Amino acid sequence: MKKEELLAIGAALTKTVRKYIKYSENLFSLYRGHTNSSLYRSRRDMFQQTMKYRPYTIDHAYQGFKIGIGYCDGLCVAAAVLASRLDLNLTEKCYISIFAVSEGLTENHAFCIIHQDPLLHTYKDNYLVSDDIHKLGLKARLKNGVICDPWIYKSSYLSDIDSHLGHAKLYNVTGYYEGEIISKSFSFKIPSNSKKPYKKIDDFESTMQEIKSEFFYTL
């Protein structure tokens, strides 16, 4: 597939997820000057509701949908779940997988990659994929790969990771991208049906509404 097609999927996922989970609670530049406000404190209290769910689980992401709050891991799971429920006009297999930036036992950040590598799709949890995010973008099997990074409201070509990090700099969070890249064993094949037209952003949003309705029904 052309990398432009994968970027279109990533951009639509990012836009849709951020419509329903508007704020990155640990993106502190968004709250500069307001950390003592009642809004900030109430949102921090609400976020505690998500902590009873394990990271990188569907329940964790659904709770984020419910209250509109999330960290990078929950946002990534939300994007992956949404992608797994779509029905796109894809002529080739395509996957969305979650990875983390790790320094020792600390995970600094999580993001999704939209790609066509079936091996990457099967990696176990905490498998070392790359020494750093720059080398990740140089891997031949990811030459058309796209990083879907809803935490900073951005999707980019992996081959243009410097531009992506330039966007992260706007939020003063480039340090979170420093470290080894490990898999999180949370990966979906993006469904396809060539008999149906390529979905527009409105269709992504209607699918998200279906996911939310299904979740609230089962609470």
Structure description:
This is Transglutaminase-like domain-containing protein. The chain is an alpha+beta fold. It has one domain (3-218). Helices cover 38% and strands 20% of the residues. It is built from seven helices and eight strands. It has helices at residues 3-20, 38-47, 58-67, 72-85, 133-136, 161-169, 201-218, and strands at 23-24, 69-70, 95-103, 106-115, 128-130, 146-149, 154-157, 180-189. The protein has a six-stranded antiparallel beta sheet, with helices on both faces. A hairpin with a 2-residue loop joins strand 3 and strand 4 (106-115). Helix 1 crosses helix 4 (72-85), helix 1 (3-20) packs across helix 7 and helix 3 crosses helix 4 (72-85). The longest helix is centred in the first third of the chain and has 18 residues, at 3-20. The N and C termini lie far apart (39 Å).
Strand order, main sheet: write it out: 5-8-3-4-6-7
Number of H/I helices? 7
Sheet having the most strands: 6 strands, antiparallel
Average predicted confidence as pLDDT: 82
Briefly note the structural class of the backbone: alpha+beta
Give the tally of β-strands: 8
Query: Rounded to an integer, what's the Rg over CA atoms?
Result: 17 Å
- Cα end-to-end separation: 39 Å
Helical coverage, percent range: 25-40%
Question: Low-confidence parts, pLDDT < 50 over ≥5 residues?
Answer: none
Number of structural domains: 1
Backbone shape: globular
Strand content: 15-25%
Report the order of strands and helices: HEHHEHEEEHEEHEH
